[in-house]
Amino acid sequence: MLPFNLLTFLLILTSFMVFMLGMKAVFFDPVGRIKVLREQKIKLDNISTQELQQELDTLDERIQHQMQESRLKAQALLNAAQ
Question: How far apart are the C-alpha atoms of 77 and 81, rounded to whole Å?
Answer without folding.
Answer: 6
